[in-house]
Amino acid sequence: MKHAWRPAITLVLLALLCLPYLCLGCGGEEPSGRVVIRIGQITDFTGISAPSLVPLNSAVEDVARYFNEHEMIPGAQLKVISYNEMSDYSRDIPGYEKLKEQGAQLIITLLPTTGEILKPYSEKDHIPLTALGGSTPLITPPGWQFWFNCPPANEAVTLLEWLTQNDPGFPQGRPAKIGLAAWDAPFQKELKATAEAYCKAHSDQYYWVGGYLTPIGSVTWAGEVEKLKDCDYILRGAIAQATAGFCKQYADKGYNTTYLGMSAMTSFKGFILDYCGWDILDGAYSDSVCPWWTEEGFALVDLAKQVLNEYRAGEAEELIHSGTGYLGGFHNMFEICQVIQQAVDTVGVDNFDSQAFYDAALAYRTGGEYWVNYPEWSFGPDKRFLADNIRVYEWSKEAGDLVVASDGWITLKSP
User: With contact defined as beta carbons under 8 Å apart, do 285 and 159 qualify?
Assistant: First the structure.
């Protein structure tokens, strides 16, 4: 199916999609007799990160609703309170304070910069930050922050090692030339530093051409395109507009490369495809901590599709096309709700608070009926990111979709 939406109108459409959720999620009156557990969420409904985060926001709302409707936490009513910070980081602290005033017992953050800004406030107030997107400083040293994903540094070194053994196009007889161009933000900074260090430590396999970070909002990539024109691989950042703009301008100059998108790029698959087309993206690689929409044998993927089609039938096709924003958010929010569930099982619904969530998160392990065919993931006293494994996907023009390229799950490497 041909999708007509384009970056010029995407943010308007996404904003309209989210109008019901700009203040309170899960809406309506709480059923009599239930204890309300308030989950704050600092996100972006209308700014530069909206193409990735709007589908994720929908998943956060839908998982909370599913837990409520199926009474998966007896005696509790989950209530999501959302704050639109518009990718304006000056709004993060006011947003945090507002959610705290509204009684949030934990707060979801989706952008790495937001997590880093709010970490000291989380520590002072003993309110858990449950990050869906982050950076290593968020969890170093470990504290009241729990990252329900994995660090880009671990992703990068794992994917780079995997390519040397599994990409049929990996150069033979010479190191692969690789570089990065992206907007200047924590995720991209961490990716650049890690990839550069890895390439220099493995100079027989990779030659680091350069890493170029431009101010957030930059739209012209002519200089970066020329510097990276001979690269075999180019690493991409976590923001849809920057990735799409660079890839299109690179192709317009007649250059060809293989893009390495990391997990973030799968979250805005629809945006970049609609802007660039399959000819530019064919053969790119991305990793993900959740299986793709089309894979079978994963109960959470099946449940996400079921809930999406039940709660958002009119939006389901577009949300699936958009990428893993909804699917990844569904996985992450399901994990958060399971932590709440286990905390309530331990202390009782009347005694649930931030401390109960913190204690339950430290003891949390994935497992049971929803996690068949997944690895077991957990936090720990000194470990504050959850996922220890990824799957690698190739962007395939022939399939018109992402296809699994790795042989099952790959254990993350340490940078």
Answer: yes
**Residue 59 resides in a domain:** yes
Domain of 250?
152-288+390-411
Asked whether the beta carbons of 238 and 185 are under 8 A apart, the reply is yes
- Report the distance separating Cα 45 and Cα 93, nearest Å: 17
Distance CA(99)–CA(28), nearest Å, equals 18
Considering only CA atoms, which of 166, 165, 196 is closest in space to residue 179?
A: 196
Same domain, 132 and 95: yes
Q: Flag whether 221 is in a domain.
A: yes
User: Quick one: 166 and 57 in the same domain?
Assistant: no
Same-domain pairing of 28 and 125? yes
Count Cβ atoms within 10 A of the Cβ of residue 171 and give its class: 0-12 exposed, 13-18 middle, 19 or more buried: middle
> Which helix or strand (DSSP H or E) is residue 88 part of?
none
Residue pLDDT tens, the chain, 415 long: 444 334 333 433 344 344 433 444 343 345 568 999 999 999 989 888 887 788 999 999 999 999 999 999 999 999 999 999 998 999 999 999 999 999 999 999 988 889 999 999 999 999 999 999 888 999 999 999 999 999 989 999 999 999 999 999 999 999 999 999 999 988 889 999 999 999 999 999 999 999 999 998 899 999 999 999 999 999 998 888 999 999 999 999 999 999 999 888 998 999 999 999 999 999 999 999 999 999 999 999 999 999 999 999 999 999 999 999 999 999 999 999 999 999 999 999 999 999 999 999 999 999 999 999 999 999 999 999 999 999 999 999 999 999 999 999 999 999 9
Q: Which of 46, 49, 43, 191 is closest to 110 using CA atoms? A: 43
How big is the CA angle at 298 (ends 72 and 300), to the nearest 5 degrees? 30
Report helix angle 299-311 to 50-69, nearest 10.
90
Q: Is there a single domain that holds both residue 273 and residue 403?
A: yes
Residue 2 lies in a domain: no
Residues 11 and 118 in one domain: yes
Q: Are residues 180 and 138 in the same domain?
A: no
Which DSSP state fits 199?
H
Tell me, what CATH number does 20's domain have?
A: 3.40.50.2300
**Do 140 and 162 sit in the same domain of this protein?**
no
- Extended beta strands in 241-376, E state: 258-260, 285-288
- What's the start-to-end Cα distance of the chain, in Å? 41
